[in-house]
Task: inverse folding
């Protein structure tokens, strides 16, 4: 996993760091803190994987008939899909709405989206009882009247779309020019297809909970759940682009060429402004959700205070702080707010799937994830980080490949 | 808001009325927020 020693395949593909160096990171040996920690987590994950597939779901999880969807669905799937929405929002902004000044953000966002969706499917293999039957709905018994079928079909198709959208980067790395040029020609149709699929399944993830009006707390349950999930995914995706971009430009500084560094600030301010507007809209429709169900009286309860914390602390406050950050040109404030927004989305999805689900059950029967479930989730995130680092340190993600510079 | 509601008619009248007022507030508030966000850019 010594990706720090990673080299690019051709001298032309080397990034152009500001210091004028070759772009190849200095050799630091294999025992870096990241490698050691990631290695230990992956070993733990391998052990948990062995337990899961030899002992079944009960061997490592607290899932039950009351709560068949736990942290793997609430965090890995629902949150993972929402945070991976940066792929379609950024691609749509650049290729469909002509916001070319954000072009530098497309490849990192598409990579984040691709890895995010890949890990969602990876996590699903642990969660479903018989993972080898995952393709059954497509080839054996399609349940076309089920929302879950629609989610499954969209995620499978969108993962394929993201792979194709991402493919020019590895193809440039491999030097397969003709195939890369062909894939570039597919950019617009793929982007349109990606937006359509994302609109469908981001909302359908919320629609899956429409079947649980008696289980999900009324402040989170609403007929508008599909709209809530879709709109919040746009904000989550854009906040994630800012958050991920900030980390990437800090950690992989040597991979970033000056042009990308320059565009990065435009991306942050532009996306912060857009996220602020989307969060304001999201806050508005959430209040409408409370109003149409006449649930005002629940705001004074314990769950109500929790709801207010989510709405005011992780939706209204970030919307306001993004606005202040854009007006005052405060990069630090915007970056902090992006983190706040990401945490807000995590909280919202966990509230819907776990915390405020089965709220009527006695405490003793409520679901609390086992440490092994959480460990497996940490393992899955770590696999994503390792894959992200492997790709970013080798392929033209944070810089343009000089051989294709004029082709963008 | 906390008054007792006896019929569906009362429920719909009350909730729809509040939603219309909220939408009116958003129709006024959103352009103001848009101006707040963009004013600095014009100054630059």
Result:
């Amino acid at each position: 996993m010594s990706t720090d020693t990673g080299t690019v395949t051709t001298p032309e593909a080397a990034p152009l760091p500001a210091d004028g160096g070759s772009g190849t990171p200095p050799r630091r040996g294999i025992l870096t803190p990241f490698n050691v920690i990631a290695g230990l987590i992956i070993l733990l994950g391998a052990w948990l994987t062995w337990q899961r597939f030899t002992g079944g779901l009960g061997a490592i999880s607290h899932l039950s008939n009351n709560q068949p969807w736990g942290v793997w669905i609430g965090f890995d799937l629902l949150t993972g899909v929402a945070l991976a929405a940066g792929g379609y929002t950024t691609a749509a902004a650049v290729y469909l709405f002509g916001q070319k000044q954000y072009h530098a953000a497309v490849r990192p966002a598409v990579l984040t989206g691709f890895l995010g969706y890949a890990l969602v499917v990876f996590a699903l293999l642990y969660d479903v009882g018989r993972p080898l039957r995952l393709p059954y709905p497509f080839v054996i018994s399609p349940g076309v009247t089920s929302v879950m079928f629609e989610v499954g079909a969209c995620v499978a198709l969108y993962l394929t779309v993201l792979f194709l959208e991402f493919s020019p980067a590895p193809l440039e790395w491999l030097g397969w020019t003709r195939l890369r040029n062909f894939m570039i020609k597919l950019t617009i149709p793929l982007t349109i297809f990606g937006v359509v699929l994302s609109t469908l399944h981001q909302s359908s993830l919320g629609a899956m909970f429409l079947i649980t009006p008696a289980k999900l707390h009324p402040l989170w349950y609403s007929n508008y759940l599909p709209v809530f999930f879709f709109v919040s995914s746009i904000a989550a995706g854009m906040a994630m682009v800012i958050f991920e971009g900030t980390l990437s430009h800090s950690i992989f500084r040597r991979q970033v060429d000056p042009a990308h560094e320059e565009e990065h600030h435009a991306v942050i301010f532009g996306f912060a402004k857009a996220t602020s507007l989307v969060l304001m809209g999201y806050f508005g429709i959430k209040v409408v959700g409370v109003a149409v169900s006449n649930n005002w009286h629940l705001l004074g309860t314990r769950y109500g205070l929790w709801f207010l914390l989510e709405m005011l602390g992780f939706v209204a406050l970030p919307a306001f702080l993004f606005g202040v950050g854009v007006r005052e040109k405060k990069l630090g404030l915007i970056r902090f707010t992006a983190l706040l927004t990401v945490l807000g989305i995590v909280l919202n999805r966990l509230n819907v799937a776990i915390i405020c689900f089965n709220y009527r059950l006695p405490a003793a029967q409520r679901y609390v994830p086992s440490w092994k479930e959480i460990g497996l989730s940490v393992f899955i995130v770590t696999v994503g980080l390792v894959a992200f680092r492997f790709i970013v340190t080798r392929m033209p993600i944070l810089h343009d490949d000089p051989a294709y510079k004029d082709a963008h | 808001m906390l008054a007792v509601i006896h019929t569906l008619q009362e429920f719909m009248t009350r909730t729809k009325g509040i939603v219309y007022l909220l939408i009116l507030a958003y129709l006024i508030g959103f352009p103001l927020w848009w101006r707040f966000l963009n004013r600095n850019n014009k100054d630059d």
Summary: Residues 34 and 44 of chain B are 17 Å apart (CA to CA).
